[in-house]
Amino acid sequence: LSGLKINSIIDLVKDLDTSRQTKNLNKLLIRILLHLQVEFSKGFEMTKEQNAEVAIIVIVDENNGIGKDGDLLCHLPNDLKHFKKLTTGHIIIMGRKTYESLPNGALPNRINIVITSDNADNYPGCIVARSVDEAILLTKDKEKVFIIGGVKIYSSTLHLANKLYLTRIHHKFKDADTFFPKIDFNNWELIEEEKHLADEKHLYDYSSTTFIKKE
Question: With contact defined as beta carbons under 8 Å apart, do 56 and 93 qualify?
Answer without folding.
Answer: no
